[in-house]
């Protein structure tokens, strides 16, 4: 199994997928903040509008507008200035070819070194991490990455439009079952940015202090688990080498 080593291929561009506005802020915004601080270009793609989330009587259209604004504000705080919204209905996301084609198109357009997405496997230790949309996000992205992104015969209309096939080096999955995690990022220096990004999603947090305590506790636990210095805060991922130096792949 290839171990992630940015020295072998520096990370310069990253494309991050989330099922709902705020998923990336919970799962990976500290890592994103560390990347952008180092000069990495990061873009977000949010697959659903989050129109089934919230605690008031706003219409779906009003909720969508609000959640888009919240996500843009949160992204900007961690250095992300391009947010793509796929526009699927909250609670109805499926790994269909229509969705996968959009994923392939975006990956071939951005041509990132890392694609970051939600994990496609159910997490039985904390089932709330495994909202059906989360699983669908992970499954759609994983299916799109191999083989479609690198196969010129998949969605040939994209190749005809000038979006050439592309061999992605790395897939990072967040919200993973613990037993799948194999890489952690120390986010201590940017943890307050992560919290500030989460605070932008006020429509989703009826108890902000409780949310912040939970996030801090989880990140402290990951820091300890990965043997970081006392008090370090971390985010953990299941990192998969899609195209490493020793990869032999066929369609």
UniProtKB/TrEMBL annotation:
Gene3D superfamilies: LmbE-like (3.40.50.10320). The keyword RNA-binding does not apply. Keywords: Zinc. InterPro entries: GlcNAc_PI_deacetylase-related, LmbE-like_dom_sf. This is LmbE family N-acetylglucosaminyl deacetylase. It comes from Paeniglutamicibacter kerguelensis.
């Amino acid at each position: 199994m290839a171990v992630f080593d940015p020295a072998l291929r520096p990370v310069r561009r990253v494309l991050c997928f989330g099922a709902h506005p705020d998923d990336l802020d919970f799962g990976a915004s500290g890592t994103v903040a560390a990347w952008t601080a180092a000069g990495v270009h990061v873009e977000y793609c949010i697959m659903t509008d989050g129109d089934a989330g919230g605690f008031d009587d706003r219409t779906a259209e009003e909720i969508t507008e609000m959640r888009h604004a919240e996500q843009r504000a949160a992204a900007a705080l961690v250095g992300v200035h391009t947010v793509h919204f796929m526009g699927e209905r909250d609670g109805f996301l499926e790994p269909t070819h229509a969705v996968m084609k959009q994923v392939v198109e975006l990956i071939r357009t951005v041509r990132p070194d890392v694609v970051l997405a939600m994990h496609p496997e159910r997490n039985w230790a904390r089932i709330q991490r495994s909202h059906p949309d989360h699983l669908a996000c992970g499954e759609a992205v994983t299916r799109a990455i191999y083989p479609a992104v690198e196969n010129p015969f998949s969605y040939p209309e994209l190749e005809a439009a000038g979006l050439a096939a592309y061999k992605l080096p790395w897939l990072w999955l967040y919200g993973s079952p613990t037993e799948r995690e194999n890489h952690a990022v120390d986010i201590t220096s940017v943890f307050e940015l992560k919290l500030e990004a989460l605070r932008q999603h006020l429509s989703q947090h009826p108890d902000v202090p409780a949310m912040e305590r939970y996030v801090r506790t989880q990140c402290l636990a990951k820091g300890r688990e990965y043997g970081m210095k006392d008090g370090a805060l971390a985010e953990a991922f299941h990192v998969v080498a899609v195209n490493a130096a020793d990869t032999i792949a066929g369609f």
